[in-house]
Design goal:
heterodimer; A: ABC transporter involved in vitamin B12 uptake, BtuC; globular; B: alpha/beta; six-stranded mixed sheet; four-stranded antiparallel sheet
Chain lengths: ~290, ~240
């Protein structure tokens, strides 16, 4: 079950990567920081207001931060190179992490369990799980479903897909491509923040908990094939379950090494991802 | 309808268009012919806003559009069917067409879109058959029709087409050209850029000849068709040589 919980959160980070990658072709390495910001600000808001409201505020704050980042750092760049974008987003990630250290300090925080406490458990056909695990999986499933519906059935979602398919042609249809990029940053920030809120009762959150998530999420995004969100869910599960089984075979300290080895292996053997077609990836920029 | 005065533009340090001046009246089919790399595509890109004009003015309906981004120019009623079709390959045919109607939705004329869609499907029955197919799986000719349909959904006053016959079989090309004449009959104004000068002049009212970024000749389609220089350079006939034989 721990594997599935972690797998879900990796998948959420990976989906955040995919949303921005799909509209802009850039990898936003600050994606993990959105998750951290979501969790941290929810904890802070929870001191003043009930939990649902605190989560809502946290998501809105993170979404606004996503928009500000895009407007300040990305929007005015004219056709930047991939390397430059990578360095910029890594810079943004460090900036957010250090600001979080200033605002919240080094202490580890957590939200209370949404329902029950850490000792309540639900019997799922012989397996006992804490209700929070169900929250994580349920909320993530809803988020994926809503996103899929948004991209397929709304005019705005279609515009974003059009921008990713062919930016110039989308502009010729009257789509404001610049705004679509801002919107994609807001969406992926919001998705990250929602993920951050639902997992933080289990995993806790600290100013620097975003970076390892970004690495795992990136591994999952690559594993599933960049830009493919459904595959990211599958790949997230694979990584999460592999990690939790690895403790039986290897010392716990090597748990983190698993995802890095998988990332390297995938990049060497099948850079298009296990679910991706090599045909499509040849057309991608990197 | 469209008036261009001394427009210059290019990519980076490279200047492609040099003092281009031309105009289009409402209801006309005007064609621009020229060799590869003469600046035909750059001219259309400059009018549509994808390429920024460095100097000169571009007036559309008496309004200067030279500094507007492409999305604004589309809203004013000037649409481009880009070279190489540029359909949204991973989206369905229907989604492609509806995206073209985006300016209509923005102008709160969403109800009109349904009628427009029916009207277009009457012109392009093939697209209706393939409504649910992904645009990337269509043949070249169908993609071209889709690109034209997508541009028409915005109800443009002026529709510009960049090499609509490129890479198409002669029969399909004939279809596309008959659609263009049909569009004009319905009151559209068309700016057509073509390498196939004979076919383009065959349906156009007037034409411009562009060479290395300059307009070197202009006139009615008949005049250009019978012009020796045009025939030698673009229609593959050399009247002088034929005379001697």
């Amino acid at each position: 079950m721990a594997g599935i919980t972690y797998g879900t959160i990796y998948a959420i980070v990976a989906i955040g990567f995919n949303i921005i990658y799909n509209t802009t072709g850039i990898i936003n390495f600050a994606q993990g920081e959105f998750v951290m910001l979501g969790g941290m600000s929810a904890v802070t808001f929870h001191q003043f207001m009930p939990l649902p409201l605190a989560i809502l505020c946290a998501v809105i704050v993170t979404l606004l931060i996503g928009a500000i980042i895009e407007i300040v750092f990305i929007r005015w760049l004219h056709k930047p190179s991939v390397l430059r974008m990578i360095i910029i987003t890594i810079g943004i990630s460090i900036l957010i992490r250090e600001s979080a250290l200033h605002v919240w300090g080094e202490s580890v925080r957590a939200l209370p369990y949404f329902t029950g406490t850490s000792v309540t458990s639900i019997n799922l056909g012989g397996v006992y799980v804490t209700p929070q695990v169900l929250w994580v999986v349920g909320v993530s499933a809803v988020a994926v479903a809503v996103l899929t519906a948004f991209f397929n059935y709304t005019l705005l979602g279609r515009q974003m897909r059009a921008c990713s398919a062919n930016r110039d042609a989308a502009r010729l249809c009257g789509v404001n491509a610049g705004n679509m990029v801002t919107l994609s940053f807001m969406l992926s920030a919001a998705i990250g923040a929602i993920g951050g809120c639902v997992v933080c009762p289990i995993t806790y959150v600290q100013y620097d908990s975003g970076t390892p998530l970004a690495i795992k999420g990136f591994t999952v995004a690559i594993l599933g094939g960049l830009g493919n969100s459904t595959a990211a869910v599958g790949a997230g599960m694979i990584l999460g379950i592999l990690e939790s089984f690895s403790i039986w075979v290897l010392p716990t300290a090597y748990k983190e090494a698993i995802s890095i080895s998988i990332l390297l292996l995938i990049l060497f053997v099948r850079p298009s991802g296990i679910f991706g077609s090599s045909e499509a990836s040849r057309l991608k920029e990197f | 309808m469209l008036r261009i005065k001394n427009v210059e533009s290019g990519y980076g340090r490279l200047k492609v268009l040099k003092k281009v001046t031309m105009h289009i009246r409402a209801g006309e089919i005007v064609t621009i012919i020229g060799a590869n790399g003469a600046g035909k595509t750059s001219l259309l890109k400059t009018i549509s806003g994808l390429l920024r004009a460095r100097s000169g003015e571009i007036l559309f309906d008496m309004q200067d559009i030279g500094k507007l981004p492409p999305e604004k120019i589309v809203f004013l009623g000037c649409s481009l069917v880009p070279e190489g079709r540029q359909v949204f390959a991973p989206m369905t045919v229907r989604e492609n067409i509806l995206l073209g109607a985006y300016p209509q939705y923005r102008k709160r004329r969403g109800e009109a879109v349904r009628d427009d869609l029916e009207r277009l499907y009457a012109i392009f029955p093939r697209l209706k058959e393939r409504e649910r197919q992904l645009a990337g799986t269509l043949s070249g000719g169908e993609q071209q029709m889709l690109a034209i349909a997508r541009a028409l959904m915005a109800r443009p006053k002026l529709i510009m087409m960049d090499e609509p016959s490129m890479g198409l079989a002669p029969l399909v090309m004939k279809d596309i050209f008959s659609i263009i004449t049909r569009l004009r009959k319905q009151g559209n104004t068309v700016l057509l850029v073509e390498q196939n000068a004979k076919a383009a002049l065959g349906i156009a009212d007037r034409g411009y000849v562009i060479e290395t970024g300059r307009i070197i000749m202009e006139g009615t389609a008949e005049d250009l068709l019978s012009n020796r220089e045009v025939q030698r350079a673009y229609l593959g006939r050399d009247l002088d040589a034929e005379g001697k034989m």
